[in-house]
Amino acid sequence: MTVLELDGVSVDYGRVRVLDRISLSVRPGEVVGVVGESGSGKTTLARTVLRAAAASEGQVRVAGQDVNRLRGRALRAWRRSGAVQYVFQDPLRSLDPGAPVVDSIVEGLRIARIPAVDAERRRSAALEAVGLDEDLITRLPSGLSGGQRQRAAIARALVVEPRLLVLDEPVSALDAASRDRVVQALIALRDRRGSDLAMLVISHDIGSLAAMSDRLVVLNRGHIVEDGLTRRVVAQPQHPYTRRLIESVPIIPTLSANRP
Ligand SMILES: Nc1ncnc2c1ncn2[C@@H]1O[C@H](COP(=O)(O)OP(=O)(O)OP(=O)(O)O)[C@@H](O)[C@H]1O
Ligand SMILES: [Mg+2]
Fold first, then answer.
1. Whose CA is nearest to atom 27 of ligand 1?
2. In this structure, which long-range contacts are made by residues 122-125, counting pairs with CB atoms below 8 Å and at least 24 apart in sequence?
């Protein structure tokens, strides 16, 4: 059973084809990195998975459900279920600037009417997973560093216990030190969750993606030109475009990032 399966998916904006017959699958617990240059279609891919963009052909299945067919009430119910959670490049898009960070983190628990005991457990599990201290989250978002904010945004996504976390350029806006902390948090999350949580991580930076992804998918002008285990893609890139991406950055894949 796959968590996510795209089968021949195309997305068109007017007469422009932005994704062209994309096929891709993510298994439970797997971390799949999607890399490509600006304009290659990465965010469109994420929006399609979230059903924020509609595929003009092909199937998008999330946990077996063909989300591209959902309309009206069924679509709203699916969104409310929280099966897929999204983390933006800019964490301020998911944190209320006028409220303590903890309020934003637990919002999904309130919406889903999770009973207090369970809510407390999920809240502390999410905070621990991203390495955020209790005293930090009583502050407003403006009182946190960029990396702390991004980890708070990830905690907010985790409390609803999604099957799939989609992260769109989660570290691109951060300074080097914050970036490392967030990458480490995502690696720890993957290693701890086992097969519970799958992640689709999008970045133009193959270096940080290689550190956390089990598999790498390379997107070039709306086409997947490469899809394989991180170790294999980095050591033996099959496509010239992948080779160029790799040559442009230093890559240090961690051993644990390359589970079979
Ligand atoms: N709503 C839209 N209407 C028309 N064209 C769009 C729309 N959204 C994206 N595009 C176009 O689709 C292409 C892919 O965009 P997308 O945002 O998916 O790229 P990306 O890989 O996420 O780029 P970046 O790394 O800059 O975020 C681009 O040419 C973009 O201009
Ligand atoms: Mg983008």
1. 38
2. 122/158, 122/159, 122/161, 123/159, 125/158
CA of 11 to the centre of ligand 1 (A): 11
Question: Residues enclosing ligand 1, CB less than 6 A?
Answer: 13, 18, 36, 38-44, 204
Ligand number with the minimum distance to the CA of 44: 1
Q: Which residues pair with 220 in a beta bridge?
A: 223
**53 Cα: distance to centroid of ligand 1 (angstroms):** 11
Question: What confidence tens digit (pLDDT) does each residue in 155-184 have?
Answer: 999 999 899 999 999 998 888 888 888 888
Angle at 103 between CA 97 and CA 109, to 5 degrees: 135
Point out the ligand nearest to the CA of residue 35.
1
Domain ranges of the chain: 90-161
Kindly report the pTM of this predicted structure: 0.91
pLDDT digits (tens, 9 = 90+) for 85-137: 999 989 999 999 999 999 999 999 998 889 999 999 999 999 998 999 999 99
Residue 229: exposed, middle, or buried by beta-carbon count in 10 A (0-12, 13-18, 19+)? middle
Distance of alpha carbon 57 from alpha carbon 254, whole angstroms: 37
Answer for the pair 200, 167: CB distance below 8 angstroms, yes or no. yes
